[in-house]
Design brief:
By secondary structure, the chain is α+β, with helices and mostly antiparallel strands. It has three domains: 107 residues, Trigger factor ribosome-binding domain (Alpha-Beta Plaits), CATH 3.30.70.1050; 97 residues, Chitinase A, domain 3; 158 residues, Trigger factor, domain 2 (Orthogonal Bundle), CATH 1.10.3120. Helices cover 45% and strands 23% of the residues. Strands 7, 8, 9, 10 and 11 form a five-stranded antiparallel sheet that branches. A four-stranded antiparallel sheet has the order 1-2-4-3. It is elongated, with a radius of gyration of 33 Å. The chain starts with a strand and ends in a 6-residue tail after the last helix. The mean pLDDT is 91.
């Protein structure tokens, strides 16, 4: 018997399901009889509870379960028969006017959209490349040295210089009144490393231990502290201690302290180059992949299933809630988190997922076991014990599925780059890293 599918709007459909009352009744009785063999009730021995008593106690819940199961089975059967690709869960309501001996339901649901991908040969993609320079290696080495620096107290008459660590007491006032966060004792910072506002560093630079100074400090308009943002406060700072910085030399001892096995400076620089190359590869790959996905989405036409967008919204909201809870915020479960804040992101994710699925299907871009293995080995290469990392992925189906998605995205990116108009551009190392040192 053909299934009648009614189109409501765009992706929304409706199917009417009918079930014989006798089928439901028989299934309810069968489950109650099975329940009676194991249920425990006061006054009865196990397995000896009369069926009528079991039905009185559990009949409604069993009836509800059976109806859910049978309607769900009927919906899946009807959807398969009509060759529908269902998106999300259907909304099912009981329908009046069913034939005698039957019960009827309306199932309203959405189907996955037809995805139309335009001519990819007209898509334009900028593909970047980045070289790891010797300068980037040396600056990374400097950062590693700073992480292991030591400090020695300077003579009392020595003025503060860039690179010195100072210990200060300070208090700031707005219109003669102290404000939150404007006072500290025994506060340490390193002059010249932008740990404080420039005006504060300028005031302290040149001061000697035991000296005090008053000075105005203008807070920028975008300063996090709203009470003082865009305002000028009066500060008084007292330098209590000045310490000079000593960086460890670039030698075998430093190399060994950084875990370089043979302990040579050449091996240390090679290790830094390899680590930076892995980071560059990851960032370049992510940036090029995003450029591909943007170009691909620009060539795609599709309607978005509301149910899929809502499911993605729910995931994003719950992820935000879990993040707040992890940060120690209390009563997070009661905190209202507006869905609309995440709607553009949810819609973008759903749209991209549908487009990727269509291209993977139409261009046969499924991930092969060999590709998945190669991707896992690449991910494991940066760890001390790669074999353990490989086992970590293969021991969990969810982690393995995450890698498969990554391979699928790479396959799509390679396919689109092979079809599109690609412009190659070499990007500076600092530009890739967001103007931050490596």
């Amino acid at each position: 018997m053909a299934v009648s599918v009614e189109t409501l709007e765009k992706l929304e459909r409706k199917i009417t399901l009918t079930l014989p009352v006798e089928t439901i009744r028989n299934e309810v009785n069968a489950r109650l009889r099975k329940l009676a063999r194991s249920v425990r009730m006061d006054g009865f021995r196990p397995g000896k509870v009369p069926l009528s008593v079991v039905a009185q106690q559990y009949g409604n819940s069993v009836q509800y379960q059976v109806m859910n199961d049978k309607v769900g089975e009927a919906f899946l059967s009807a959807a398969n028969e009509a060759q529908l690709r269902v998106a999300g869960q259907p909304t099912i309501t009981e329908k009046d006017g069913a034939p005698e001996g039957e019960v009827a339901f309306d199932a309203v649901f959405e189907v996955l959209p037809d995805v139309k991908i335009g001519d990819l040969s007209t898509a334009e993609v900028e593909k970047i490349s980045v070289e790891v320079s010797d300068d980037a290696i040396e600056r990374t080495l400097d950062i590693l040295r700073k992480q292991r620096r030591t400090f020695a107290q300077r003579p009392k008459d020595a003025p503060t210089e860039n690179g010195d660590r100072v210990t200060v007491d300070f208090i700031g006032k707005l219109d003669g009144e102290p404000f939150d966060g404007g006072k500290a004792e025994d506060f340490q910072f390193i002059v010249g490393e932008a740990q404080m506002l420039p005006a504060f560093e300028d005031a302290v630079r040149g001061m000697k231990a035991g000296e005090s100074k008053t000075f105005p400090l203008a807070f920028p308009d975008d300063y996090p502290g709203k009470e003082v943002a865009g305002k000028t406060a009066d500060f008084m700072a007292t330098v209590k201690k000045i310490e000079s910085t000593h960086l460890p030399p670039v030698d075998e001892q430093l190399a060994k302290s950084l875990g370089v096995k043979d302990g040579t400076v050449e091996a240390l620089r090679a290790d830094i180059r390899n680590n930076l190359a892995r980071e560059v590869k990851a960032r370049v790959g992510a940036r090029n992949k995003q450029a591909v996905m943007d170009a691909l989405l620009a060539k795609a036409e599709l309607d978005l299933p509301k149910s899929s967008v809502q499911a993605e919204l729910n995931r994003l909201v719950e992820a935000a809630r879990a993040n707040l809870k992890a940060r120690g915020l209390k009563d997070v479960d009661k905190l209202p988190i507006p869905e609309d804040n995440f709607r553009p992101q949810a819609e973008q994710r759903v749209r991209l997922g549908l487009v990727l699925a269509e291209l993977v299907r139409s261009a046969d871009l499924q991930a092969t076991p060999e590709q998945i293995r190669a991707q896992i080995e690449d991910l494991a290469a940066g760890y001390e014990k790669p074999a353990e990392v490989v086992r970590y992925y293969y021991d969990d189906k969810r982690r393995l599925a995450d890698v498969e998605v990554l391979v699928l995205e790479n396959n799509v990116a390679d396919y689109v780059l092979g079809q599109a108009k690609v412009t190659e551009r070499e990007l500076g190392f600092d530009d890739l890293m967001g103007q931050q040192p490596a």
